[in-house]
Design goal:
The chain is about 70% helix and about 0% strand. The protein is mainly alpha-helical and about 450 residues long.
């Protein structure tokens, strides 16, 4: 019986059209976004032109609006725009691909105005328009759009790219415009005031002009690890592994080279492409010892002979435990995972934990709590003490939960191994930070 009450499409279909219609009317009352989606669905059922009129009307209304989009309004607008996008890419595109292209362009033209009045800390708004670029390319290909008209439309969009929402436009349209169309696009952009460096790179790559792309870089720019990795990646794709390696080695002495993940990944790929697998393995191990990169270690181990990987993994654990950065070691041991080692490491380095690194402490404590409650408690305590000692009131509600977790874990700990028991820690905490009344109010609530 319970299965028939589960909310899924099959069970709802069984209610019948009349019942569902009544429910939709009831649910949509007072919800403008839902009502607009229902009207859009009704228009689409009547044909592409009806749906197009509904989409035009809604896009025009959004264009006219000047209301600031806080988190609540942003969510509603995103749902609205997603509905318009689905109508354009779905029933309208099926019936009239050219009409769909026209409407998709109108939707993308909204981007600058919408982003100007949005609080987009999550990147959800810009992400919608970035996906819309790919939709435009798909629709234009299906419609067989006139290349010259598409060039003009693309040039206009690129002139309104203040938030980088159209950075993917040239790669997306390259298969549709082809080399000749991309040359015309470059000319159109020059006529409108110029072409920035990033766009020039995209145009050259889109045309398959690797030499033209390479000429855009000064030798000094190739000493930057990320730039060298990007250029070398394109050389690798073109089968020019030797040249790719030379470009990478040109940046090898950069001070930030060890943190440049893309540089290392591309160098390893270049060595493998040149048949220098042993050197690639040496590089994986060298970088792992410095960075404790889990993906690099996994790649290293899977290329070893049978049983050699067991010994190498043990060496890797020892390297991690001797690493000069305790947080890096903790993150590696927890997420490898080697939880017993991680627990021992946490306890041995009890004074090293800086509760500011909550993005590492919190998931580590969660993973350790089941079988290693003492280690989990130490990490939770560090976050509580940091929040209170630094007066981070925005973290207080999280700190309260961490303190409660410590209290729950207290019952699971038989041997404190010389660590201060929870009751003593909690008493000392109140004595030291009793004046943080807003925190203690949350504790007692």
């Amino acid at each position: 019986m319970a299965a028939k009450r589960t909310l899924n499409a099959r069970n709802l279909e069984a209610l019948g059209a009349a019942t569902l219609a009544e429910l939709l009317i009831e649910v949509s009352a007072g919800h403008a976004v839902i009502q607009r989606r229902l009207r859009l669905a009704l228009a689409a059922a009547a044909g592409a032109e009806g749906a197009a009129q509904e989409v035009r009307k809604r896009l025009a209304a959004i264009s006219r609006s000047t209301t600031f989009l806080d988190s609540t309004r942003r969510k509603a607008l995103l749902a609205d725009l997603e509905a318009q996008q689905q109508a354009i890419s779905g029933p309208i595109a099926t019936a009239d691909p050219a009409l769909a292209v026209e409407l998709q362009l109108r939707l993308l033209e909204l981007s600058e105005g919408v982003l100007d009045r949005s609080s987009d800390s999550t990147g959800a708004v810009i992400g919608l328009f970035q996906r819309g670029v790919d939709a435009l390319a798909t629709l234009a290909a299906a419609a067989g759009s006139d290349p010259q008209a598409l060039v003009e439309q693309a040039a206009e969009l690129l002139q309104e790219n203040g938030y980088g929402q159209f950075e993917g436009l040239i790669p997306a349209l390259a298969p549709v415009l082809e080399a000749a169309g991309l040359l015309r696009l470059e000319e159109a952009l020059l006529e409108r005031g110029g072409v920035d460096r990033f766009t020039m790179e995209q145009l050259a790559l889109g045309r398959g002009d690797l030499e033209g792309y390479l000429e855009l870089f000064e030798p000094s720019q190739l000493t930057w690890p990320d730039t060298a990795a990007e250029v070398a990646g394109h050389l690798l794709q073109a089968g020019r592994a030797g040249q790719a390696l030379a470009v990478l080695d040109h940046a090898a002495k950069a001070t930030q080279i060890m943190e440049a993940e893309a540089w290392h990944a591309t160098r390893i790929a270049a060595l493998e492409a040149l048949g220098r697998g042993d050197e690639a393995q040496q590089h994986r191990w060298l970088v792992f010892c410095k960075t404790l990169s889990i993906p690099l270690l996994r790649d290293y181990l899977k290329r070893l002979d049978d049983f050699a990987d067991v010994e190498a993994e043990e060496r890797a654990m020892a390297v991690a435990e001797a690493h000069p950065l305790p947080l890096a070691a903790l993150q590696f041991l927890v997420f490898w995972p080697a939880l017993p080692r991680a627990a021992r490491y946490v306890i041995e380095h009890g004074e090293a934990w800086d509760g500011d690194a909550y993005e590492i402490h919190e998931p580590a404590a969660e993973r350790l709590s089941a079988d290693h409650p003492l280690a989990a408690s130490l990490l939770l305590r560090a976050m509580v003490v940091f929040a209170l000692s630094m007066g981070r009131s925005k973290r207080y509600r999280y700190a309260v939960e961490h303190l409660r977790q410590c209290e729950r874990l207290d019952a699971c700990i038989d041997d404190w191994q010389g660590v201060e028991p929870h009751s003593s820690f909690a008493g000392r905490l109140r004595e030291a930070f009793g004046q943080k009344w807003s925190f203690w109010q949350l504790v007692e609530r």
